[in-house]
Design a protein that fits this description.
Number of strands: 13
Order of helices and strands: EHHEHEHEHEHEHEEHEEHEEHHEH
Helix content: 40-55%
Distance between the termini: 34 Å
Strand order of the largest sheet: 2-8-7-6-5-3-4
CATH architecture of the largest domain: 3-Layer(aba) Sandwich
Radius of gyration: 22 Å
Oligomer: single chain
Length: 382
């Protein structure tokens, strides 16, 4: 039985055309972009062209693109790098942020910053009244995500940026999940910095980017040879950068087509889940077309994930399982979801390789597994 992959928000398969674009720089054209000979000049040209491609994909200028090892490094570079050149003040971040945003923000406390998480409503959208209240205190930095990795909820980052700028704060957005799924325009968002990642858009792992307002000073977090305008030292990952740019270009060209196709599949999935008594999280918000986050009352998420995996479907659980933890999703708790229901969370994130037939089969398998699990539970109670 072949496994069906329903976890595209975690990572995506490398697109064949992206792989082909990378190949020359993995073998024949292996020069260091900092070398002055012909091998180096060819590599430098490839990086420069990739920078232009990525900038075009997100409405920025090539000079604003700083390549990194991924979204986590881009987020840390933005938050720690901006905080290092600003006087300590309040730092505001969304209560539903990925840990690679939340933890750097929280860590600024030892440098004299005052951490302040931003509340969300029951659909997972940032509460603008809470932001307005937070900004009454002198605020240096605000970091909010554009699309949530668990619920898929889309945020009004442009409005957040407008309010934060008016209060004199610098603004960063983690746009890792949004890239390739919705239209991105750096200038229109009004932020000072935006983080991106390659492996979420059918590109290679290990490469990302920070798009930066040219007027913003940033303290590098990795120093050395002065690469990436001195903001990120280390020899550029040429094959990865080329692949990232190719993946971005492909994602933008397919964005509308993919969104329509994935949206139809997600709606079919959620109709089936609702018929089984499932609760859909974040359904009241505008969401990414590919993402569905739900729970079946009385069924633990980790148990259901394992059962679905054995039945041939790879999904994600809302429970953090690192180091044996069974704590419910912090995102769902911030949304006001009861802990017991939150522990049942399952995320399905669809991609180009999925089909309506797989959705129909998934609903059938889900129905069968729920019946089996409930029977086992009833027997255990007897």
């Amino acid at each position: 039985m072949s496994q069906v992959y329903f976890d595209h928000n975690a990572t995506t398969p490398l697109d064949e055309s992206v792989f082909l674009a990378m190949m020359p720089y993995m073998q024949g054209q292996y020069g260091n972009p900092s070398s002055r000979h012909s091998f180096g000049r060819i590599a430098r040209q490839a990086v420069d062209e990739a920078r232009e491609q990525l900038a075009d994909a997100v409405g920025a200028h090539p000079s604003q693109v700083i390549f990194t090892s991924g979204g986590t490094e881009a987020n840390n570079l933005a938050i720690r790098g901006m905080a290092a050149v600003l006087p300590p003040a309040q730092v505001v971040w969304g209560s539903i942020e990925h840990p690679c945003v939340a933890k750097p923000c929280q860590s600024l406390k030892v440098q004299g910053w005052e951490p302040r998480p931003l509340a969300v409503d029951d659909a997972g959208r940032f509460a603008m009244d809470d932001l307005a209240q937070a900004l009454q205190v002198t605020t240096g930095l605000v970091s909010v995500m554009l699309a949530n990795n668990e619920t898929g909820a889309l945020q009004d980052v442009a409005e957040v940026a407008k309010l934060a700028r008016a209060a004199g704060a610098w603004v960063h957005t983690d746009a890792v999940q949004a890239l390739g799924k919705i239209r991105l325009d750096f200038a229109e968002l009004g932020v000072h910095a935006m983080s991106l990642s390659s492996h979420k858009v059918y590109g290679p792992k290990g490469v990302g980017a920070l798009v930066l307002d040219k007027r913003i000073e940033l303290m590098p977090q990795m120093t050395g040879g002065g690469h990436e305008k001195g903001l990120r030292a280390g020899t550029e990952n040429v094959p990865g950068i080329v692949g990232f740019a190719a993946a971005c270009e492909l994602a933008v060209s397919r964005m509308q087509q993919d969104a329509e196709m994935l949206g139809r599949m997600r709606n079919e999935l959620e109709t089936g889940v609702a018929a089984l008594g499932g609760v859909i999280f974040g359904s009241g918000a505008r969401r990414l077309a590919n993402t569905s986050y739900f729970a079946i009352p009385g069924i633990e998420g980790e148990t259901l994930l394992i059962a679905l995996d054995r039945a041939g479907f790879a999904v994600a659980s809302g429970s953090a399982c690192a180091s044996g933890s069974t704590e419910p999703s912090a995102v769902l708790l911030a949304m006001g979801v009861e802990p017991e229901l939150a522990k049942g969370a399952i995320r399905v994130s669809l991609g180009r390789g999925n089909s309506m037939q797989q959705i129909e089969e998934f609903v059938r398998v889900l129905r069968a597994e729920l019946k089996r699990l409930r029977t086992l539970s009833a027997v255990a109670v007897m």
